[in-house]
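Extended Data, panel c. Modelled sequence:
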Amino acid sequence: MEYIVSARKYRPATFKSVVGQANITTTLKNAIKSNHLAHAYLFCGPRGVGKTTCARIFAKTINCSNISEDFEACNACESCQSFNDSRSYNIHELDAASNNSVEDIRSLIDKVRVPPQLGNYSVYIIDEVHMLSQAAFNAFLKTLEEPPRHAIFILATTEKHKILPTILSRCQIFDFNRITIPGAVEHLKYVAQSEGVNFEEEGLTVVAQKADGAMRDALSIFDQIVAFSGKEISYQQVIDNLNVLDYDYYFKLTDAFLIEDYKQGLLLFDEILKKGFDAQHFVAGLNSHFRDLLMCRDQATVGLLEVGKNVKERYAEQATKCSVEFLYEAMKIASECELQYRAAKNKRLHVEFSLMRLACIFTEKKK
């Protein structure tokens, strides 16, 4: 049986299944409901958040001959079936990264004149539209402003600022959100359960953090972890495979700083370096750890903590031992260390000195 990567296998096929873009899917469904369809849309946002996916779902739904009561495609009519089998002549996709010349756009303009054979609309999805040349943009302008009634353009880009204002003014613009960590974790849970994979939530949280707001990246990392560990995903396996520094080191270091044990801090840093971790990456992680502890100090900000349930409990416990003054000074020292790291000649000594300063915060305060 052919293996299909999770990003393709679990690609949303309905508006309802799109992760983290409820404001956009609701607007598109309402446009279909009221029959107020624009002739050009611009979908912009970071990579892997569902721009092209939403474009395909929208194109499929407006050509469906039996739209459901909640304005989703039926997946049963001839138009839907041809779309699902990748043989639809109503939907045309162009990758502007490799088809960015005037000739490519002129060829597209010639196709636009031909009405659809099945359904009501011919939908033209142009991915990475910011890659079009200046001349190609100019050739595209008139058609984009006054296309035939049956033609709808959906432009997708990760870099809206590179698109000409004259193009922007002709489109309805939708800004896609980065996928939140809780949203990504919930979808990863669904995929893991569908694939029969047992998991620890902390492990999936690390995967979501590593993906940095891109659902496609999260699913690619998930596949990598499954290939590494089989049908059991644990937190330890995830951090080993992704070479992520364990939270435990940061908790131990903070405990050492609170009792002013600089020797323990230096020994833990040496252990981290021996495991092959980058010192600058370690300092950035330590700074983030202090920030998360500060968030745990107040119920109003505890929701800003994006970690698993068990780790959150450890943060809450350690936060009670740390004063706001201590955390503020710790973040100041860690930030200075991170900023000056590149300029330092002896980088290890630079970090070690910062760790010693962190272990002397209370002594310095007394002085």
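Residues 30 and 36 are 8 Å apart (CA to CA). This feature is highlighted in the accompanying rendering.
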